[in-house]
Amino acid sequence: MQLDRFGLQYEIIEASGRHGGRVYTYHFETPETPNFHNYYDVGAMRFPRTKIMDAVFKLFGELDLDKDGKIIKYIMNAPGNIQLFNDKYLTFTYTKPNGEVLMGVEALLADAYDPFKEKLVENFEKGWEYLMEYDNHSARTYLGQVKGYPFSVIAWMETMDSSTLSYDLAFSETVIDSLDFDYPSGPNNPSGTVMEWACVDGGTQVVTDRMAEKINIKPLFNCRVTAIAMDDPTSHNPGMKISVQGHPEYEGKRYSHVIATAPLSCMRAMDLDQAGLDYAQNQALRCLGYGAAIKVGIKFKTRWWEKTSTPTMLGGVSSTDRPSRIVVYPSYGFDDPQDANGVLMASYCWTQDALRLGSLIKGKGTEEEKILLDIIYKDLAEIHGQEPQWYKDQTVDYHAHDWYHDQYSIGGKHPVAYASFGPGQFSNLYTELTKPAAKGNLHFAGEATSTHHAWIVGALESVDRAIYEVFVKEQRDDLIEEHAKNWEEGEVEQGYQAALQCLRGILGLYS
Ligand SMILES: Cc1cc2nc3c(=O)[nH]c(=O)nc-3n(C[C@H](O)[C@H](O)[C@H](O)COP(=O)(O)OP(=O)(O)OC[C@H]3O[C@@H](n4cnc5c(N)ncnc54)[C@H](O)[C@@H]3O)c2cc1C
């Protein structure tokens, strides 16, 4: 859409047979009731209404999703949601005057993260510089060595707040994640009320379907890029060429620029020997960390969680330290329960929790997936109170997806859930990919090359940067100016930093 706006010629070359990538809504094929809300979002599913997410909501507006009533409220927490830890149901809460409900861990987290978050909200670029001073810390070492919390307290915080071993990731990653999930009072939350979240009625894939409809030049599917190279490495404007598996017509075709949006693991599988990457860029492609994620959707005969629990659960999540970790109740389908299908996200896991359950995701009907379902039924029983067999008897169908070992949806067929950097990676490696390669003709984009990992906004912002790089290299001041009008403020790569990074790339400068 951005490229159409500038009247540029482009091709979108996609390895898989569908558009959307990690925006993927799974629709069950077995409706017993009308085929309505018969899906769950296997990838992106929720969007906080904060300043950081402006670009996403702007996109929703451009696609008329708001106007058509497709953007509905996502319920992050609801009365009746359960917290089951150490076999005990946690019931103690503290309600702030603005209605926000806090529990013990949240207070400790706010104490550790809020000073950074407030600086980032005030001025993202300056806040980022401050955060980078602590980038060599993992969340665990920061909480232990800087805040002085004992091991057991940190382990308790990690268990309640996040996923197993996630505190070994960069402290900076954890702070940004916390900012994305829990934006302190600021421009978009002026009244200090609890942050509002949104989701897309019909699933997030409605967004990418509409994007695909709207763009002038449609993607070319089943075209896996296997190599990217400079066309004339001796020239200061070398041009680019690519190879596409099974499509000899691409050999010899010249492009002025390539914007590479494939996940870094997929990029690594391409032949980039002649692509003009420097050592640090190759190292960044190899080393920058990705996390794992799995989701299991179960379609039940009824929406029992809205009927049998007291109070009834209308949206929100329940969490536990048992293997399934998080249960997500649909935020839609309340108005007409006769019609709404009983699709529940029975487990959503990250990091080590995802790797463990993910090892059981081997395809429908396999022995491993029977074990997976038994684990989930047992957890549902412990959380909600019936016998495991009851949930099994209620099941109409299920779908399990392991993003890290994804073979089907991500055309590149390589481990990808979302970027999750380790200590020091933001300050030492990330900046190698926010500058172009090939003398300014090859650009890296996609969520991993943004500061907002695991969010669509990260992908959008990285593309804004990549387009800016193209215009700088082409010395199109008119388009740079035009582009600036649509570029959301606040990103660290914007402005002076973007200009600097772009020049570093064009001139081939190392850090
Ligand atoms: C489980 C999960 C939950 C999430 N939840 C949320 C959420 O609630 N809210 C939110 O905003 N975001 C969420 N996200 C993150 C969001 O989905 C991603 O950040 C975003 O979709 C990434 O977009 P991208 O364009 O960078 O990458 P992708 O969407 O992965 O697109 C990359 C594309 O490159 C293609 N490709 C790979 N290799 C090649 C090749 N060799 N040649 C050609 N094409 C290739 C792939 O097939 C793919 O289509 C979630 C992600 C996951 C996995």
Automatic annotation (TrEMBL):
InterPro entries referenced in this protein's UniProt entry, alphabetically: Amino_oxidase (IPR002937), FAD/NAD-bd_sf (IPR036188), Flavin_monoamine_oxidase (IPR050281)
Origin superkingdom: Eukaryota
Residue intervals of the Amine oxidase domain: 2-462
UniProt GO molecular function: L-amino-acid oxidase activity
GO BP term (any one): amino acid catabolic process
Full protein name: Amine oxidase domain-containing protein
Gene3D superfamilies referenced in this protein's UniProt entry, alphabetically: 1.10.10.1620, 3.90.660.10, FAD/NAD(P)-binding domain
Any Pfam family matching the protein: Amino_oxidase
